[in-house]
Specification:
The structure is a single chain. With 355 residues, the protein is an alpha+beta fold. The protein folds into 4 domains: 73 residues, Nucleic acid-binding proteins (OB fold (Dihydrolipoamide Acetyltransferase, E2P), Beta Barrel); 81 residues, OB fold (Dihydrolipoamide Acetyltransferase, E2P) (Beta Barrel); 71 residues, OB fold (Dihydrolipoamide Acetyltransferase, E2P) (Beta Barrel), CATH 2.40.50; 75 residues, Nucleic acid-binding proteins (OB fold (Dihydrolipoamide Acetyltransferase, E2P)). The longest helix is centred in the N-terminal third of the chain and has 18 residues. It is rod-shaped.
């Protein structure tokens, strides 16, 4: 022992420089929970002192118990009572942003559970960070396809997703701007590509109606969005798609076009076109009786059978530019007409007033 080298105080301090280094605001430190009290949590930081976490961060410390190791961010290096003021919230968020960036870079699919909704989308908290899932980034299954005026119904449908697990991908993240955006569409894109590859024009599919709007019907086809335009709902004239289907109905339809991310569908093409059989008995020059269904500046439309509508052009009503069809016809009036032309390929019939 007599030959043991003596260590000076300077050497001792130099060897343990990191241990005795004073913490500064912004540092992330590790420690062990000393106590969990009603208004505070105390953390042993070793040579760097004792840290205090205020209970207002209870949501980030609800599961802590004595002896647990924690990471925290330094808010104040030394308060009046000598404690180091710590934040678990900031440390959790810092770590959360790191994990979020990694998942964004790797295009990973994650699960979220929305905690609230507004008309723009769903509010989410992920890894301690508040985020948003916009309506436009929802899948065909969840997208609230309703009329533009039905704002209350949009919110109602979005609220039905609150508390439910949804698989998404992170599409935008910025710690500096405190922005975190999710997409359900991106999470299912790869699977949808495989499903699209299995479909072809002419196929008959089954789907669930997700929305009924003025111009048609939206359908969820195993995660793929389909649209049945109002003109493809029925062979007869359709004024209101809601008269034919409602949200939640399971329907069959024919694929008539495949776009990049949507199917164009037809219900009417799954049944025989009644127009073809109903015009069989019509001939040029024959007389027919019909009902005036629409009056326009260029003429009047006449229903001559359940599936056949014909046109009396304004040129057949008299000479001159001052002929007014509204002065000649009355809606729902029944009159006799003469068949001028039958265009079976274009599904058009021209009439004149019978004399």
């Amino acid at each position: 022992m007599a030959n043991a080298k003596k260590i000076t105080m300077d050497e001792l301090l130099s060897a343990n420089e990191d241990s005795f280094k004073k913490v500064i605001a912004g540092d992330t430190v590790k420690g062990t929970v000393l106590s969990v009290k009603k208004h505070e949590i105390l953390v042993d930081l070793g040579p760097q002192g004792v840290g205090l976490v205020p209970r207002r961060e209870a949501s980030f410390a609800r599961n802590l118990k004595i002896g647990d190791e924690v990471s925290a961010s330094v808010i104040e290096s030394e308060m009046n009572d000598g404690y180091v003021l710590l934040s678990l919230r900031k440390a959790v968020k810092d770590k959360g942003w790191d994990e979020i960036q990694e998942k964004l870079d790797n295009a990973e699919t994650v699960e979220i559970v929305p905690f609230d909704a507004n008309r723009g989308g769903l509010l989410v908290e992920y890894e301690g960070i508040r985020g948003f899932l916009p309506v436009s980034q929802l899948s065909a299954e969840h997208y609230p396809r309703v009329g533009s005026a039905d704002k209350d119904e949009i919110l109602q449908r979005l609220n039905s997703l609150v508390g439910k697990s949804i698989k998404v991908r992170i599409i935008d993240a910025s710690k500096k701007e405190n922005k975190l955006i999710f997409s359900e569409k991106e999470a299912i894109r790869d699977g949808l590509a495989a499903r699209f590859a299995e479909l072809k024009v002419g196929d008959t599919i089954k789907g669930v109606v997700t929305g009924v709007v003025d111009f048609g019907v939206f359908v969820n086809v195993d995660g793929i969005e389909g649209l049945i335009h109002i003109s493809e709902i029925s062979w007869e004239r359709v004024n209101n798609p809601a008269d034919y289907v409602k949200v939640g109905d399971t329907i069959e339809a024919k694929i008539i076009a495949i776009d990049k991310d949507r199917l164009s569908l037809s219900m009417k093409q799954l049944v025989e076109d009644p127009w073809i059989s109903e015009v069989e008995g019509l001939k040029k020059g024959s007389k027919v009786e019909g009902t005036i269904t629409r009056i326009t500046p260029f003429g009047a439309f006449v229903q001559i059978s359940p599936a056949v509508e014909a046109l009396v052009h304004v040129s057949e009503l008299g000479e001159g530019s001052d002929v007014d069809p509204e002065k000649i016809f009355t809606l729902n009036e029944r009159k006799d007409f003469k068949v001028l032309d039958i265009d079976k390929e274009g599904r058009k019939i021209s009439l004149s007033i019978a004399k």
